[in-house]
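User: structure tokens for this one?
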Amino acid sequence: MAKGMATEEAKQLMGAISESLAIATFSLDGEILSANQRFLEIMGYELGDVVGKHHRIFVDPGYAQSEEYQEFWKSLASGKSTTAEFKRFGKGGREIWLQGTYMLATDSSGQPVKIVKVASDVTASKLIATYNAGMIAGIERAMAVIEFQKDGTIISANQNFLNLTGYSLSEITGQHHSLFVGREYAHSEEYAEHWRRLGAGESMEGRYKRFSKTGEEIWLQATYAPILSPDGEVVKIVKFAYDITTAVHQADELEQALEASHKAKELEIELAKANEAERARKEMDLAIQELSTPVTPIWDQILLLPLVGILDSTRAASIMTKSLEMISQTRARIFVLDISGVATVDTAVANQLIKITKATQLMGCEAIISGLSPAIARTIVELGVNVGEIRTTATLRDAFETALASLGTRIGQSRQEEKGTALSVR
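Assistant:
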């Protein structure tokens, strides 16, 4: 009686496994003997399509002819189990990733009889992980990135950051962030509060003055992003930054030139000089606009435009032209417009920003505006714009996460559509 119950329980367990996992059996040299319904659904075949065929119908033709593939089956036949993620191809050449195990099955006398494969479909998560890795790599290429412990001790930094500051990685690892700030500021209550807030999990962003290894002044537009554990504890701080030193210095020079020109205007004899200074101011303003409106490809489907300084109607129109040209050239799917470096705009410029988001949408590119100040947000609302049509995030980090999630959702939808199409064909 007990044996009969155990046998029934075993059958129920195997039935449950067969419903949730893909299972196929092969001869010792790789000929397909059987496959359950789950396996057939994943691969897009009927049972009659695969039984009697060789396993190589599921792999790349080049790999099927390789010595590595031949050795794979020899190893299995010798009794060596293999567990890994396997790249396979379903009906019609559709790429599939399986997390599975190949194992040797023997008869009652211990003689090898067949190879059993048990697997699950991890295609969607594999593709999303690949896109995530690509996104991170794109950020690494475009931005200076550095990681800290909660107290500001440096953990690591990418090459962009090292190039910017002039240090090697070994020179800064284990040192404190105060290495990059002035002595007086490093001992200030403001600086201590900066790290207390980050350690408490609060993200921070803005324009920061820092110093290189040689003592040169560096200006960064940056976001400090606390990374949390599943329990909500801060495990480290990551800083994403781009160099705006040239733009800041040229803005200072411009301000000095304007002050000089204002004084010159008070003297009739200096009128000619004042006119020349005004012309130089306009040329410098255009140069600063060019430097501070870089439309940067972060990933092959994402563009980033970080804006810094004063934004007027002329510059906003130039931004729209550049952005639309880059979207057309790169066929970008997402356009991130970061205005955390812009303090305020008038209603005409705010209206121009709305037009930029609508124009990008007409080109099939989703627009995300990050870093709106309270003043800019109020100006947009006063325009009577339907804010539901505008996608915004509080920080540049949030924009990256939103863009990543959007790409991930499209991947998932694409996979579901492909699966639905395969099933309907069946």
